[in-house]
From TrEMBL:
InterPro entries, A to Z: Kinase-like_dom_sf
Stated name of the protein: Protein kinase domain-containing protein
Protein origin, superkingdom: Bacteria
Organism whose genome encodes this protein: Streptomyces achromogenes
Length: 517
């Protein structure tokens, strides 16, 4: 068997099992091809950072013209020419010129609520109308298949996403990002598009904040409803930068970055903008410029500055614990949100109702305990418990920072990717397991037991994606690794059932931890 060249991009898997499995999959196909195919495949993987073009090149059903373009892309030294060829490969595979009736409109609502076979596009900048119109005419009814075949935009905490956010190239090689409406969140995408338009108007012109920083929105090129598939996409221009989340996860001092985060937040609040998903992953930093993306939960009810009281309620929502709290030590969060968020004032004996919008993670845990109408004291106590088990700490073995709260995210994420409708409840169970681990003196074992299982699910998902690509599935969802998902669910259920008894729980954590090793 011809061995594939070592693939970059899988160094996160310290077990080496992902690379070995993918090497075997690609190597099996290379064994049927001339020796030079291994060199081309390795180069394609190197320059694209993804296995998608490798799979297209190696599949036996790929037309000679597509194979030839792949070889040209692998051999050229020009990044611009590679980008153009990347688009041309997609066009050759999916374009069906003249097969779609296309209309461009200045009415966003018409695109978001439209029906029928007509493809509609809202293009806010008249300078982009010809380019968008030509793109849709060229691809015709194949536009959605082209987009769905493109490279996913992964996050630092999930190596595989659900296919909603893709990166691809326009005919001239310009890189764009597309986001597809998620049918599991009805109305959310439309809200985001209208919010973007309102915010873009309010932030028109140069916006500076803090220490001569600049605030910009990622430019929206078009909102498109594809008549053939019914999918709706937002197409945004790619912007350079590193996410604030990646910067916070990197070693080093983060006080300056968090100061910028606070200044940015205040700049938005001063303009009456409640950006509900002010997550560090949605802030792209490039020098002094901070680009914002993702406006699903954003509101701009008025131009008057948000009141101090409402700012405190805002930070008691997702911002404090669920966004900053899982990435930064508690002291850093307190400093960043000083004046808005102070856990020392959370009275665990306070009577009366919760005076601000409750956070879903807290209400889910309380509902699991049979509390559906908590008083403020009970809510405060539960919120404090959750923060204590989601806050970063140091791994007792390596001494390196670890992020327990991201385990919750990955449990919910991969169960959702597997199509499980109870993914949110397993997020809740994971939180309760971590709280029990803290209470029973076995937090490290409890965290490790869940993390080991979700790590294995992730590894198998990534391998399943590459196997699917090589088999010709580059437009549909990844086939879930059901055994690994079942093992993850079973492990969480065992620990959740055992958590009420300290001895039983500690034994279960120890036993499951040994299985993981």
């Amino acid at each position: 068997m011809i061995r594939a060249a070592q693939l970059p991009g899988y160094s996160w898997d310290t077990t080496g099992r992902v690379e070995a499995s993918i090497q075997a999959l690609i190597g099996a196909r290379l064994a049927e091809l001339p020796a030079r195919a291994a060199t081309v495949a390795a180069r394609l993987r190197e320059v694209t950072g993804d296995c998608r073009l490798v799979a297209v090149y190696l599949r036996p059903d790929s037309p000679d013209a597509v194979v030839g373009l792949c070889e040209r892309l692998a051999s050229t030294q020009s990044a611009r020419e590679r980008a153009r060829l990347h688009h041309e490969i997609g066009r050759l595979r999916f374009a069906r010129p003249g097969t779609a009736e296309v209309s461009l409109t200045g009415d966003l609502g018409q695109v978001l609520t439209g029906a029928g076979d007509r493809t509609r596009a809202y293009v806010p900048d008249p300078g982009h109308r010809d380019m968008i119109g030509s793109l849709l005419d060229d691809f015709g009814t194949g536009f959605s298949d082209f987009v769905e075949s493109q490279h996913e935009v992964p996050g630092p905490n999930a190596r595989l996403r659900q296919g909603f956010v893709k990166s691809w190239r326009l005919p001239d090689g310009t890189r764009v990002i597309s986001k597809r409406a998620n049918p599991a969140k009805p109305g959310r995408f439309a809200q985001e598009q209208f919010a973007y338009r309102a915010i873009a108007s309010r932030l028109a012109g140069p916006v500076t904040f803090g220490r001569d920083r600049r605030l910009q929105l990622a430019p929206l090129l078009a909102t498109i409803r594809d008549g053939a598939s019914g999918h709706v996409y937002a197409i945004l221009q790619w912007v350079s930068g590193e996410t604030a989340e990646s910067m916070l996860l990197a070693p080093g001092e983060h006080a300056s970055l968090l100061r910028d985060y606070r200044d940015l937040m205040d700049a938005l609040l001063d303009r009456g903008i409640l950006w509900g998903d002010l997550s560090p992953r949605n802030i792209l930093v490039h020098g002094p410029v901070h680009h914002l993306v993702d406006f699903e939960k954003t509101q701009a009810p008025g131009e008057a500055p948000v009141s101090h009281g409402d700012r405190g309620a805002y930070c008691r929502g997702q911002i404090g614990v669920e966004e900053l709290g899982v990435l930064c030590p508690e002291d850093a969060v307190r400093t960043c949100l000083h004046g808005y968020l102070d856990p020392d004032t959370w009275d665990v004996n306070a009577p009366g109702p919760v005076p601000f919008p409750p956070r879903p993670e807290v209400t889910a845990v309380l509902a699991g305990r049979g509390v559906t109408d908590p008083d403020l004291g009970t809510y405060n106590q539960t919120d404090r418990q959750i923060w204590q088990v989601r806050s970063p700490d140091l791994d007792p073995v390596t001494g390196q920072p670890r992020y327990p709260g991201l385990v919750n995210f990955r449990v919910e994420h991969y169960l959702s990717c597997a199509g499980r409708t109870d993914a949110d409840d397993y997020d809740r169970k994971t939180t309760e397991i971590l709280i029990a681990g803290r209470r029973h003196g076995c937090f490290d074992d409890a965290l490790g037991a869940v993390a080991d299982a979700v790590d294995e699910a992730e590894r198998q998902f990534v391998v399943a994606e590459v196997a699917g690509l090589l088999a010709g599935n580059d437009t549909g969802p990844v086939t879930a690794p059901h055994a690994a998902i079942r093992a993850l669910v079973d492990r969480i259920d065992v620990l959740d059932t055992a958590r009420q008894d300290p001895g039983t729980f500690r034994s279960a954590c120890t036993a499951l931890g040994k299985e993981g090793r």
